[in-house]
# Entry
Amino acid sequence: MYDELAAVELADALTCVRKLSPEATGPLSMLDEATLGWSWRYPQLAELQQAFAQARSRQWPHTRTEQTWQDVITTAEALAEALRELGDVRLARCTEPTGWGSCGRVLAEQGSPCTSQEHILPEAQSGAS
Ligand SMILES: [Zn+2]
# Structure
């Protein structure tokens, strides 16, 4: 999963977008989601991430053209370049349990509190009301 990647690795994944088929919207969707976490943590990425998200949102069968595909590649590479500058860092993610697995929310830094309301609290697990 893209969630586990260091900044440089995610940058490589974005650079590889140009090798994908323009019809492969699944990987684009996952890259959009993965890079969104980075844009919360590193505000300098927010604008580039948003441009990529908008470009890929036009890449659906009824709206895509050669131009929308070029936009996806261009915005993905701009975002890749900014991510690469961060180097070999990974996002700190919350590991608390939730109803669907571990929380996974991006934390400001390792060990900082998570604001998610979705954690399974010890009293909820024992069935107390
Ligand atoms: Zn959490």
